[in-house]
Amino acid sequence: MTINRDGLLVEQGQGHSYWFGQDLYIFKAVGEDTGEAYALCEVVVAPQGGTPPHRHNRENESFYVQEGEIEFQLDERTLVATAGTFLHSPKGQLHRFTNTTAVPAKMLVWVTPAGFEKFIAEVGKAVNGQITSASPLSPEDLDKILTTAPKYGIEIIPPPPEQA
């Protein structure tokens, strides 16, 4: 694996883009660009979008909120992060994020080492051409995410069964 010695320039609106549920992941740097050291993506989190509780067993994950506000859970702690907030979740830590507002939020997500981008590329829906909006996750999409996650060292915590 080699790092591009000429550097890397990815301008606004550029990068490998995927819909992951209702959220848009735009990768600015992937493992093949960084000698597998890290991946960096910009995530536009839709209103009520985000992730279920999960753990990464291979990567550390850091978040920098650029716009809006996002509710985070880090183990047992829940907090609301606004623009300018940085959070770090070390590998193995249970975490999730949710946009609980009515407007999109935007953040940078940095994973070290790289690898998470391959999971998103496999289970997400590639954006080819102009970015519009995503359709909700189908049961088939959700099943694909749940069955593919362990391949990438990701443990997704399912919601508790509903009480009747």
Keywords:
mainly beta, 3 helices, globular, three-stranded antiparallel sheet, 12 strands, seven-stranded antiparallel sheet, 13% helix, 164 residues
Describe the structure.
The chain has 164 residues and is mostly beta strands. Helix content is 13%, strand content 38%. It is built from 3 helices and 12 strands; from the N terminus they run ββαββββββββαβαβ. The protein has helices at residues 31-34, 116-123, 139-148, and strands spanning 16-20, 23-29, 39-45, 54-56, 60-67, 69-74, 77-82, 86-89, 95-98, 105-112, 125-126, 154-156. It has a 7-stranded antiparallel β-sheet with strand order 8-5-10-3-2-1-11. A 3-stranded antiparallel β-sheet has the order 7-6-9, with no helix packed on it. A hairpin with a 2-residue loop joins strand 1 and strand 2. The radius of gyration is 16 Å and the shape is globular. 26% of the residues are buried.
Rg (C-alpha, Å): 16 Å
Largest sheet: 7 strands, antiparallel
Euclidean distance between termini CA atoms? 53 Å
Spatial shape: globular
Determine the number of helices (DSSP H or I, runs of at least 4 residues): 3
Average pLDDT metric: 89
List the helices and strands and how they pair.
Blueprint lengths: L15 E5 L2 E7 L1 H4 L4 E7 L8 E3 L3 E8 L1 E6 L2 E6 L3 E4 L5 E4 L6 E8 L3 H8 L1 E2 L12 H10 L5 E3 L8
Antiparallel strand pairs: 1-2, 1-11, 2-3, 3-10, 4-12, 5-8, 5-10, 6-7, 6-9
